[in-house]
Write a structure and sequence with these properties.
Helix content: 40-55%
Strand order of the largest sheet: 1-5-6-4-3-2
Bound molecules: zinc ion
Oligomer: single chain
Shape: globular
Distance between the termini: 7 Å
Number of strands: 6
Low-confidence stretches: 1-40, 45-57
CATH topology of one domain: Glutaredoxin
Mean pLDDT: 80
CATH architecture of one domain: 3-Layer(aba) Sandwich
Order of helices and strands: HEEEHEHEEHHHHHH
Number of helices: 9
CATH superfamily of one domain: Collagenase ColT, N-terminal domain
């Protein structure tokens, strides 16, 4: 989980990326297909809200919408598309066995499935995010919230309804779902989850996300995938500029001076 703090690993990764590039392969390292909004977050991928929440949960889906419920998670789309909802649920449910093994906890069915809200537009996400966290996670486009025990994710990259019908849920969105579902797993199964440091929260979620995407064939490994390899390159850049925080600082969550978009790479 702390792979990006290991100088040897990073240097080795860069060599491999460059070798692949020279060989004409796709490195993805600098070719991340940013979302239409140009601010595709990583765990924007979340960050979990640890504040005491508001007393009232906002009304999120009115009118049309689709809900799919599984053993551990429930996906609620603010748009009408059974296929997308089913695919989102498939990715979320795949998180559970991986997370159970990682945290070495006994499997059990939660009393209530964790809710994953999927928004078709940024505007719809921002409205709910503003009500829950006052803009703290507006630019993340995805976050999980302890007190509502739910995740809120924008479907991205932005694409037409026809494109969605043809290609199904984008891999970028599957990554976000896997990541946030991993946070919801901790929220549900680990009583002291609120005391987990950021590096553990996001390190575990990113690792689980990668395992799920690799297992279903949507990622060919952290060093090849455009999303994860970009984070490796970001960490390498910090290392080369001598700006990569020490392990000590990372373990203390003392990385506020690192540019926001690169903090997830550091963790
Ligand atoms: Zn996260």
């Amino acid at each position: 989980m702390l792979r990006t703090t290991n100088a040897e690993y990073l240097r080795g990764s860069r060599r491999k990326l460059w070798h692949r590039r020279l060989a004409g392969g796709s490195t993805g390292g600098t070719l991340v297909p940013h979302c239409a909004y140009g601010r595709r977050p990583r765990c924007g991928l979340c960050c979990v809200v640890m504040v005491l929440a508001m007393a009232c949960v906002p009304t999120i889906v009115t009118g049309e919408g689709t809900t799919q419920t599984g053993r551990h998670f429930r996906v609620i789309c603010d748009f009408d598309d059974e296929k997308i909802a089913a695919q989102a649920l498939e990715t979320a449910e795949a998180v559970w066995p991986v997370a159970t093994r990682l945290f070495a906890v006994a499997d059990r069915t939660p009393d209530e499935p964790g809710d994953i809200y999927l928004f078709r537009t940024v505007a719809a996400y921002e409205k709910v995010e503003a009500e829950l966290t006052g803009g703290k996670f507006r630019r993340n486009l995805a976050f999980s919230h302890w007190d509502t025990r739910a995740s809120y994710i924008v479907l991205q990259p932005d694409c037409s309804y026809r494109g969605l019908q043809k290609s199904g849920i984008p891999t970028m969105t599957r990554r976000l779902i896997a990541h946030e579902a991993a946070h919801l797993f901790r929220c549900t199964m680990i009583p002291n989850h609120r005391s987990h440091p950021d590096w553990l929260q996001d390190g575990a979620a990113s690792w689980i996300e990668e395992q799920v995407l690799t297992a279903d064939g949507r990622s060919s490994g952290a060093e090849r995938d455009p999303d994860t390899s970009t984070m490796i390159v970001q960490a390498l850049g910090l290392l080369e500029q001598n700006d990569l925080p020490s392990v000590n600082r990372i373990l203390r969550d003392d990385i506020e001076d690192v540019q926001w978009s690169k903090r997830y790479a550091v963790r």
